[in-house]
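Appendix C reproduces, verbatim, an entry submitted by the partner laboratory led by Prof. M.T., so that reviewers can inspect both the input and the predicted structure.
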Amino acid sequence: MSVPTSTHIIESAVIKAPFSNVWTLIKLPRFAEWWSALDKSEIVKGVSDEADVYKFTFKDGTSQEVKLDAHSSLEHYISFSLISSQPALSYSSVLSTIRCYPVTSGELEGSTYVTFSGDFAGDADAGVIEDGRFKRRDALKDLAAFVAKQS
């Protein structure tokens, strides 16, 4: 019997770098520059005339295709969904969103607040959700470390 669990997760971090330095990296083709789990991110040609599809190749050999669902340069977010994975996953889908906000006052003024959320399909179990949580935390740490090196 499976344990009921929330299928929505959100992780966040304050990155001590200017907003423009962080936001410029939040593009699917640039993920492999800063996310240490990824070996490469490349556009998949000919999949759809209406959507951008990228292939993420992870350092552990996993290959996933993700579709860019939304991108707003005004509201500073992107959303992308998993459309295929090799090896196959135990759940049917996940929609991920990364949002960036400039920190405009207080002791961290000039920094960037970043959230990385995931909305998993109802067939994702608690282990999948927790794994997603830790992967998002690691990605945010990698993003912060990458930006720090660029400064």
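The mean pLDDT is 93. Additional entries are available on request from the coordinating office.
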